[in-house]
Design goal:
The chain contains 12 helices and 10 strands. With 300 residues, the protein is an alpha/beta fold. The strands form 2 sheets. It has a 6-stranded mixed beta sheet with strand order 6-7-8-3-9-10, sandwiched between helices. α3 packs across α4, α3 packs parallel to α5 and α9 crosses α11. It starts with a strand and ends in a 10-residue tail after the last helix.
């Protein structure tokens, strides 16, 4: 169990970034964390894997306290994190060496390393990039590589911090589908930080951070209703689903019952419902209501 209890954090000389955040993530469960820029999402991610130490409260990973220097290595083995900017964590020269970097440092045999590399290349659809130099990859390819490189460490919990932000729509669906398969095979818990419903739809629960506090925690359809009720700007999938919910009350609740609905299938359904390109950003009645009082790009 990954547990966050009354967590508080402030950078030196600044006001608190997080204030009293509490939640838990059991193994095999998937939690989406969303929030506007500056809400503390990335700080929370770094606290959960022990890269930062709490100013107050605690983070424990399978009863291991992230503040305990004696067990911090074990915490970081248990919790794998993928940052929004993949250049922050790519350290090797080629794709296959980058994916094999972690397993080699775990002391696995060359055969075991090769097996994990082959499996990751196939799972994430990047076998054709095996010998490619990392610095020649596109931003999206680097992001997929970063996720693959964390997956081969076989952590008990995986944190994705906007890990789909740099990939195009098709690659995003493939990446999220690969993540779903990975979780199904390993039983790892997932924290998915994202602003896209196609991403968070694979999660069991949504946690919304606002000004360092938990403003909402609950179901996916409940979160959509929260956004509409609080007049947040909506676009893309969120706008479309809000319109469907208003036209067919209970639509998103019914959709949420389909646990087997993959992110890839959801994205395809949403694309078909949107119709022609560009229509997903138009404002109908839901968009007008949702866009007049809040700033930012809104939920997609």
């Amino acid at each position: 169990m990954l547990e966050v209890q009354d967590l508080r954090f402030a950078y030196p000389g600044e006001e608190a970034t997080l204030s009293g955040v509490t939640f838990s993530l059991p193994p095999k469960k998937k939690l989406a964390i969303v929030g506007e820029n500056g809400s503390g999402k990335t700080t929370l991610a770094r606290l959960m894997c022990g890269l930062l130490e709490p100013s107050g409260g605690a983070v424990t990973v399978d009863a291991l306290d992230t503040r305990d220097a004696a067990t911090i290595y074990e915490v970081r083995r248990k919790v794998g994190i993928v940052f929004q900017d993949p250049d922050d964590q790519i350290v090797e020269t080629t794709v296959e060496r980058e994916i094999g970097f972690g397993p080699r440092n775990l002391g696995l045999s060359p055969d075991q390393v090769d097996q994990r590399v082959d499996r990751a290349l196939a799972r994430f659809g990047i076998a054709h990039l095996r010998t490619r130099s990392c610095h020649l990859l596109s931003a999206g390819e680097k992001q997929i590589l970063a996720v693959a490189s964390v997956s081969v460490m076989e952590p008990d919990y995986i944190i994705l911090d906007e890990a789909t932000s740099l990939v195009d729509a098709m690659s995003r669906r493939a990446l999220v589908s690969a993540i779903e398969r990975l979780l199904g095979e390993t039983g790892a818990g997932l924290v998915f930080i994202s602003m896209r419903l196609e991403d968070i739809w694979i999660c069991d629960e949504v946690l919304f951070l606002k000004d360092g506090l938990v403003a909402f925690r609950g179901t996916k359809d409940g979160f959509l209703k929260y956004l509409v009720d609080h007049r947040y700007p909506l676009s893309g999938s969120a706008l479309l689903l809000s319109k469907l919910e208003m036209g067919i009350p209970g639509f998103t609740a019914a959709l949420a019952e389909f646990d087997s609905l993959s992110a890839d299938t959801l994205a395809s359904v949403l694309s078909a419902l949107r119709g022609t390109p560009g229509r997903d950003s138009e404002r109908g009645s839901a968009g007008d209501d949702a866009s007049d009082s809040k700033g930012g790009s809104g939920w997609q």
